[in-house]
Every structure is written in C-alpha cells, then in structure tokens.
Task: structure prediction
Amino acid sequence: MLDTFRIALGQLNQSVGDIGANADSILAARREARGADLVVFPELHLIGYPPEDLVLKPALVEKAAAQLERLAEASGDDGPAMLVGSAFVRDGALHNGVALLDQGRIAAVRFKHELPNYGTFDEMRLFQPGPLPEPVILRGTMIGVPICEDIWRPEVCRHLADFGAEMFICINGSPYELNKEALRIEGIARRRASDTGIPLAYLNRVGGQDELVFDGGSFVVNGDGQLAARARDWEEQVLQTSWTRTARGWRCDRGDLAQETPQPETIYCAMVLALRNFVERSSCEGVVVGLDGARDSALVAALAVDALGGECVTLALVPPLTGGAQALEDARICAQRLGARCREITLDARISEALEALDVCFAGPEREAGERLAARMGALVLGAFAESQGAMLLSSATKSDFSLGRVPSCASATGGYSPLKDAYATTVAKLVTWRNSAVPHIGLGPEGTIFPASILAHTPPLPTGVDDAARLDAMLFGLVEHDKSIDQMVADGFPRAALRHIEERLHASEALRRQSPPGVKLSPRNFGRDRRYPITHAFRS
Result:
C-alpha cells in the first residue's frame, strides 16, 4: 500500500473519430508523465467527444476496442497505469465508460451512470446507463471514477464512498459557457468533497468541436474543499499532482495553481480556439473575411488572425453602399495592422445595376428588400472568392443579428463558420475594445492598437422603438436565454410595443437560423441544440 501517489491529469485536445491519433496522444502524454503512478484522460477521449450518432457505427466501436487493447499492452512496461475514456459494448448495450489499463491488460471498466439529456447533451439517445459504479483498485488504493454528469448529483459519489472509495477521479467533457468555472468548483466539486470528505480530481478536455469548445481548467479539491491544483485554461497540459496518505485519508499536496482567465479574455479565447480547431479539421487552406468597416467584421478579422496567423487569412475589403470611403479606409487600416493578406472587391456598381433592374431601392418600404439583396450579392461574391482560394468564408453576424433575422438567408448560408453567432452586439463591443489594448494568451496576432476609433464607435442598426444597443440586447437576453414572456419583460421595465415587434422577428427568423453556419457556444442557451424551436408555429407570448 502506497503512502504517496502521483497522478497526472492529461488535459488534452482530441479529434472526433480519429481513434488512432487520439490513442497516439494518450501514449505521448503517458511518456510525458513518466514517473507518475497513474495518468488520466478525458471522457470518451479515445473516440472523441461529443461523438453524436457517429458512435452508433459498429465499426467505430470496434476500432476503439482494438486501440484500447493496444493501449493496454503499452501499460505492460514500468510506466504509469492509465484511465482512458471510451465507448464500450456489453451484453448488446452501448456504454460511455472508462477503462483502467495496468500491467499490460484492461484491469477494470466502469460505466457512466447519469446520462445528461438537456441543452447540448443527448446521451440518453446514444448510451445505456451503467449501474452505480464501485471503485477500482490501483496500488492498494480504492479509486472512485465517476464520469462527468455522475458528480452533478450526489448519489454516485455517495455510493462510491459507501463502497470504500478513498479518492475521486472524475473525467469530463464539460463544454465552456460563461461563468461555468465557478459552478464546477464551487457548485459541484466542493459539494461532493464536502458530502463525503473525499478529495476529488476533476479532469476536463481542451479544444473545439463544431459548436462546442472546451476550456480545460482541470483541478483538484481536497476533502476539506481546499483547491490544491489547477491546470491552465485553453491550453493542453499534463498536470502533475502529488498525493499523501494522512491519518484522515488521501490529500493532494499543493501544486500548480494556474489563474482563471479573466473576462473578457476568456470569451475571446473560446472564439479563437473553436475557430482554430474547426478550420484545421475542415481541411481548408485558410479563411476569408469580408471586411466592410463595421465593428463585427473587424472583430472576426482579428479573431481569424489570432486563431490561424495572418498568413492563413485573406481580408476581402468590401465597402458598404453608403459611407463607403470611410469604411474602406478603416478596413485598410485594420488589414495592415493585422498583417493579413488583402483583396479589394468593389461591388457597388454591380449592386446598383441589379437594384435598378429589379426596381428595388433603398427608400421607403422597399429599403429592407434592397439591403437584403445587396447583402446576398456580396455574400455570393465573397463565397465564390473563398472557394477559388480553397478557403472558408467566415460570417460576421452576431447573436443579435440572428435573433432579429437581420442576416439574409443567402448570406448566412454562404459562410462556413460564424464566430460571433452566440455573441450579442454588446459583447462584440467589449471584445473590440479589449483587443485594442491586449492580446489573448493563445493568440497568434500582433500586439498594439488594431481598430480605428471610427470602428470602435460603430453601432449596428436598431429595430423600431429601441434607441440603445444595450437595451436591445437586454430584451433579447430575457426572451432567448430565459424564455420570459412579454408581460414579464414589461414588468422588468421594457416597452411592450418594442417587445412585441422583437418577439415576432425572433420567431419568424427560425428558418434563417437553421440555414446558418455553426458558431461557438458561449452562453447557456445558444441557437442550435440548446434551443430547439419549430420553424413554423403560432405561439406568441
């Protein structure tokens, strides 16, 4: 029986479905953790998370089983044991589970008991719940291995404690959203430690997967709730922890305690990492951003350079039909400061000809139709230009735009990715101001001022009855994030007429959002799997 225990937490990125590469990353981290007794990997790391319906393919599960045997054989040397998350079939049922690999064999397997079925999670559709798990035994120590959702309710940890668990090692695939770090530590991990008096290691992954991004921030809390170790946010890391057996049980020694990334940098990092991984895994030769002098497109340009480097970003300077000279100059300044490639595309004459041919103008009741046609034409040209470069076109539409249907369907469908899809206009304003004075710690872009003052001052159009962008976003937040009724919002001090107009546009824009490209989830309720509304319905609050 050991009096000291060395556990390495492998906070790694992954590639969904690339099982061989994920296995290789496990072995590389194990080599880095040489000297540890145990090295741990995130939930479903071997197949990638979330696998969605890919995990229903028998061939994928078979390949995962073969790679798990390969990893088990590798554990036969004098290196550390491994806890590896994967998918398993037992008695015809598919499970989300974790395997203990030690001394050249699969020493134990445990299955996830609590399957989340809310928000972005849909595990009850894919997996069967396992029984309440018992601890695994390694080097004479009883280790409870709850998997992600298993610690969000007390039953699993209490059961493991009753069966003699001396420490909890919880593997997770916990997506980023605003203020979630405090919930993980204060609301969940410390509660489970307090309930049982048993220390808990919380391992999260890092990296982007489609609309989700994982922020890392793995940590250990002792039985008294004290934070003993914490990994960095937004970066891969093999966090080494040392544990000592005391009269009261195991205790993690104080180790590395990385600071939580502050706001708004952490939001910016979420966008950067999600964009970086999405483009890399889409096999594109970089990205194209239509830069029109507006604040939204300028921020997307900066995000692209920070994610991929200036050499992988082409900024297509497309001035708007009104105020084009100043907007074009602002776009040129941004492009120069970001160090990205540029291409000026003039569309105003062609758009004007099209508007005249269709008798559509920018005045009176036809104004919105004219603006939409101009946006569609611009998007089509940008999409064709990006395709000619083998690149991905990025959308610059915000959550405010998608809420109100301000993005023409053709324009929104043209882009391959929408970094601002879950960011309200007020969030964009904060990020632009912040990026002018700071650089994200995972960014590849330049330091110094990027955006001219006129871009900082730019404001998006507002709907009828609303004269302030912050007030608009507050109304959208209540309607979208909290599903409040108009009566509730009126009680909060907002005007009824404006609310009715906004709610109508919100519901009428569902089809547009279904056609839109994916974008990283930042909020508790993103447009996508968090919020699944019918395209057509008659309900109004």
Summary: Residues 293 and 331 are 5 Å apart (CA to CA). The mean pLDDT is 91.
